[in-house]
């Protein structure tokens, strides 16, 4: 039987050791004789799990003490609304940098919640059509006298295969949607006011999101909103204003343990860079495939590529699946092909795909 390598962009694969542990203790977690899904989130065993999960995440990301960590419902789209409602108030303005599909969707959501004049957008992507190289140029805010509550951007565009590695020199607090690259490489958390991420790529299963919020941001005026998405309410209730997604939280906690055991974020970053280099090299050397992202903005997590003869794509996908290489179809917004190679994807899996591309 051919081994399956899952390149899905999300929900994405979870590390095999974590899945095996979850399988082994599915109906008897922590020696309680019940599943973790069946215990109260307010009882001591789960509270201990939640506390350790935050400790491990803080260690993995070196999160400073003046930041709060919230485990919340919903994915990145829920956080699109949460950041607006928690920080803009009735008069606040925000600046959204647009580098691809997800940053655009975040800005579109913001415009639904407040008058459009409160949301400014700046395109930082240089490509005008699908045939041009996709690259990013960050704005120069020197001398900029505009006043914004925050600047929002998406460091890794899952759909477009674009990643922003440069720091943004912003005079305003920076909010980053790191749904698809959190824990993939070392970052300096102190350079951000807020980091949020849907869990279903590098953290765990879908249904959970994580928000890392600097203390001073909680002093900004908020808008009326559902209490479940209030960061202040999450702070006052230790992320348990109501029943949280306990099984997703449990799996996230196990992923954090796994990542610590193998060497942490700096270790996985080296592997991620090696995986991406191997796959991009195979695409660049091929006569049948190409990648249209500028080399300095090629994503480590989401490798997008296209066939020069697009009529062969369906055949390629069928042949790839027969070799155990699944979920390689590109996002419906842009088409083409995409291999998502998050932390849980092994070098073996990436090498198998690279060799298949070379042979095809």
UniProtKB/TrEMBL annotation:
Its EC number(s): 2.6.1.52
Residue numbers bearing the N6-(pyridoxal phosphate)lysine modification: 201
Residues engaged in binding L-glutamate: 42
Domain of life: Bacteria
Single GO BP term: L-serine biosynthetic process
Homology family: Belongs to the class-V pyridoxal-phosphate-dependent aminotransferase family. SerC subfamily.
Name this polypeptide is given: Phosphoserine aminotransferase
